[in-house]
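Methods: example folding runs. The two proteins below were folded one after another, and each record is reproduced exactly as written to the output file, sequence line first and structure-token line second.
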Amino acid sequence: MTNHVDVLIVGAGLSGIGAAAQLTREHPGRSFAILEKRGVSGGTWDLFRYPGVRSDSDMFTLGYRFKPWTDERSLADGPSILAYVRETATEHGLDDHIHYDHDVTSASWDSGSARWTVTITTPTGSQEWTTDLLWMCSGYYDYDEGFTPDFAGLGEFTGQVVHPQHWPADLDHAGKKVVVIGSGATAVTLVPALAASGAEHVTMLQRTPTYVLSVPSVDKLAVGLRRALGPKASHVANRWRNITVSTALYQFSQRRPAAARKLIRRLNTSLLPAGYDVDTHFNPPYDPWDQRMCLVPDSDLFNEIRRGRASVVTDAIDTFTPTGIRLASGEELEADVVVTATGLNLLAFGGIALTVDGAPVDVADTMAYKALMLSGVPNFVFTIGYTNASWTLKADLVAEFVCRLLSHLDKTGRRYAVARPDPAVRPMPFMDFTAGYVLRALDRLPKQGDVEPWQLKQNYVYDMLKIRRAPIDDGVLGFG
């Protein structure tokens, strides 16, 4: 027996729950289902359970546009975000539409029936579902395994090695020397959390520094606006205030990188001990926002460095030893526990195999239309957020686009939409972003183009106009 729904959403995390919620609001009569590979909802916010796990975007923009974030904290912990996502699902009646332990392995489009046939692996065997529109909300990384480089001598180390993506519930770091390898959002979250919760000492070992900015964990102006305006109006005000500030900071960093670098360095210097080597440990060789900037709440990372419970070492790893890590400089770091906060493995669309009318789709040969559809692949939408702003800002826009697209198909009597390839558009890498996890996967991602609507702008205001307001029938989308 084959199940059929009008819209099939893959992934029950932040994106998938938001997608389904907007779909029920705008198209209450449409049938839909959410297929989730894991046994629970929440996606990233259930999977990651390392100490201190939290948002690296403010919650007024990481929260949904349609559901106010009412907690006072602007940078929230993982359990609070998970509760928010699950509360959204319950409020919109989505729980009964989620099918757990359903792993999508392939999807085949047939133009004659204008339907996708989706093959799914479940604990009780294989299933087939059909759907008019397939919507990938599975994120952008491999949930099964994080990225760990091939470190020399790793097998000689007698301590414990863990990756944050699969944090052991029984890991006891109290009274132990901990080395966290990495300098991204996960590392700058882990280091102060481990230092403040009983570790003897925590060292952040980085090959290259990252830009780090301290922000208040509680936004006093946001709290004041909530008291004055109420939750709904203040959510809109705070959301737009933070969009404006973050966009301005990004544009300032892109247009005047030297000035942005100088400003960030001055702020960091004021928070670190006198005489601290800021240029070695917090002054990257690349410009601000060439990679994602890390936010830390209430200077927690800098505070632990000042207290002497945490330190930063900038060096390359020569080899692991039985008792720690020997660096290229010859220095050896003693460690009881090593945390490899070394990044993610990107996995486009959950790694599913796509075919269109019997022909396999090589994702790397496609071009992304408005960064939400693939050229030549009908009624297929994907949700990928911003690298320079909150993920949910883009996820909300994608959901609005899908609802508008479905209304357009209803109005015109068409059954599908497809972004038609344009050979005149010059293909470019999907992301102009130098983070390691992106560079490792660029050859497996779709391309972007050098002109709109194929160009990825990483600009919410621009996308709001082009995705939320621009006509669906724009001369690029074809309909059948």
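Second run, written to the same file directly after the first:
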Amino acid sequence: MSLGLVAIVLGGVWTLQGLDVLPYSAMSGQTVWAAIGGGLIIAGLLLIAVGMRRRSSAQKPVQ
């Protein structure tokens, strides 16, 4: 789950740089980085969802 959170934060930074919201970078204004960042955000959300699912199934008592 923590890897998913890191992916979301990094993807957000890359998206903002690609959209030229965060200037002064080699990635600023490059729409390809906005697309890569958006994909990384989605991947991070999937990682968190999988981690939450595994965590909830691991806490169920065995009968």
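Comment on the second run: Residues 31-58 form the longest helix (28 residues).
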